[in-house]
User: What shape does this take?
Amino acid sequence: MTRAAVEVTRARLEVRDPSGGVQSLSLALDEQVVGSDPGADLIVTDPAVSRRHFSVRLMDDGVRVRDLGSSNGLFVDRVRVVDGYCPVGAILAFGRCRGEVVGKEDAEDVDARRLERLDLPLKAARALVVASFERRYVRAKVASTGGNLTQAAALMGISRQYLYRLIEQHGLQVRDDDSSTTQRSKRPTTVQ
Assistant: This one.
């Protein structure tokens, strides 16, 4: 299994409860608990949420979520998760609440939103938007599979070779987990 990581430097969890109220939790390297317990880091008043429903923490290779034995489970993008990683933009469902992992914006994402103010021909503007989307999409899919590039390629409906080309094309950094060096390679093991 090829293990890859997507760099996430800052993220937060935004949770909407059944009444429509929104709460936000800045994620950290320490494990934080979401639940109905008054001692939880993010307290949710939904009766369908367990006292200590799940934990969330920012890791070097993504955002880790772990079900803490809840009654109703934790779902990430409609898939039940006991212990796993989720990408920025993932939708978490627990009880009757919905949450979203929100991350720091990439510079190219900001540039893509400013396109309407730039004097660019349509073809050039489209290329910038597509490149920005592809970069975020590749990062998200790799993170959602826990770094398994074969599985990420299958989810994306492309070959592994094409995934490697996308990684190279978008200048994603490659780090070999067996060494501490960073390099660019046709056969990446860690994507940042």
In short: The radius of gyration is 18 Å. Confidence is low (pLDDT under 50) at residues 1-8, 173-190. The chain has four helices and 13 strands. The CA atoms of residues 38 and 51 lie 8 Å apart.
